[in-house]
Amino acid sequence: MKICSLSWRARVRVRVRAFALDGGRLDRGAVIKCKDPHLNPLPEGEEEETEKLMKKKITRRAFCSMLLALPLPARAQQPKKIPRIGYLSSSDPAAESSRAEGIRLALRERGYIEGQNIAIEYRYGEGKNARIPELAAEMVRLKVDVIVVQGGSPAVRAAKSATKTIPIVMVGGGSDPVETGLVDSLARPGGNVTGVTNLTRKLGGKRLDLLKEAIPKVVRVAVIHETASPATAIELKEIQAAAHALKLTIQPWEMRTAEDFEKVFAALNKQRPDGLYVLDSPLLNVNRKRIVDFALKSRLPSTYQSRDAVEAGGLMYYGADQTESYQRIAYFVDRILKGAKPADLPVEQPMRFEFVINLKTAKQIGINIDPNVMARATKLIK
């Protein structure tokens, strides 16, 4: 029996319905009668062509249905992008090891695990500020999602010059970022820089005060700093003002290169100051062990802007709580990776401070720390 001469689409629909009703088996002998006797029968040869077209349509529909029925993992998916964090430091890996590890642990607490769901690119200036611009440019070429910068104003400024779009998170810069032009204001940074400022250079007076209280005989204090920069000049002025109020005499000693250390150490051995104040800088951080060893050998009471120096044998540290700083850095990275803009994230100042005294060092250089000062310490290294 012939199929009625319905429209092509109508005939396909009829055949498809017949296919479905027959459990998905297309029977060449199956025919559908048209109830209208006035319709003409299908011309010779067209029935087979119609059947081929129906098979194509049915095959396409069956394939689409199969895809939709597949579980999600079986479908083709683009691999998820792993965020890349750039860690740019003006120091070296050894001097930065505890800080870098502290930030990694803080990131882990927020669910970011290096090697699993984040990648971290480390670059170190090895104490040479001249290398930082090229390292910052390399971070830009790597197309990292955010750059975490340690090294104070010069390092942050180099990163900011390298990119206006990649977010930059500064790690505890000692200078005021507004004074140094890194941000518009603490509340509204503007641009692509935010992070934590530890106000390290505004605590010079407090450090001198604690040194004087701990060892009352201290009168002359040598201050070791790297080549003068705008930030260092501001800090030295603040230290001088604090020293004048405490009736202390300040003797600044400038380091330009690693070769200057032995010359400065020899001069200090001749002048015999009563105490030593060491500023934070790339060159001094890389040579931290040399400075600590000199102070121990010369039996000089010393105060530092870095807790790591006291852990390595320095006498005293007063400054921002390092653990809190690491946690806040992780907070900024987390917010930025989730879409926040640095311009909308206020720069934070430290909420907690720590005062660390190395009693082993005190014993080694033959001094007794005033008990009232020890009682105020947040940590005593014994």
Explain how this protein is built.
There is one protein chain. The protein is of the alpha/beta class. The protein folds into three domains: 8-70; 84-201 and 323-344, Response regulator (Rossmann fold, 3-Layer(aba) Sandwich), CATH 3.40.50.2300; 202-321 and 352-381, Rossmann fold. 42% of the residues lie in helices and 16% in strands. It has 14 helices and twelve strands. Strands 7-6-8-9-10-11-12 form a seven-stranded mixed beta sheet, with helices on both faces. Strands 2-1-3-4-5 form a five-stranded parallel beta sheet, with helices on both faces. Helix 1 (8-21) packs across helix 2, helix 4 crosses helix 5 (152-162) and helix 6 crosses helix 7 (230-245). It is globular, with a radius of gyration of 36 Å. The protein starts with 7 loop residues before the first helix and ends with a strand.
The main sheet comes to: 7 strands, mixed
Radius of gyration: 36 Å
Low-confidence stretches: 1-6, 8-40
Number of strands: 12
Question: Which descriptor suits the 3D outline?
Answer: globular
Q: Would you identify the CATH architecture of the largest domain? A: 3-Layer(aba) Sandwich
Helical percent range?
40-55%
- Tell me the name of the CATH homologous superfamily of the largest domain: Response regulator
Give the CATH topology of the largest domain: Rossmann fold
* Gap between N and C termini: 105 Å
Name the structural class: alpha/beta
Number of helices: 14
Quaternary organisation of the protein chains = single chain
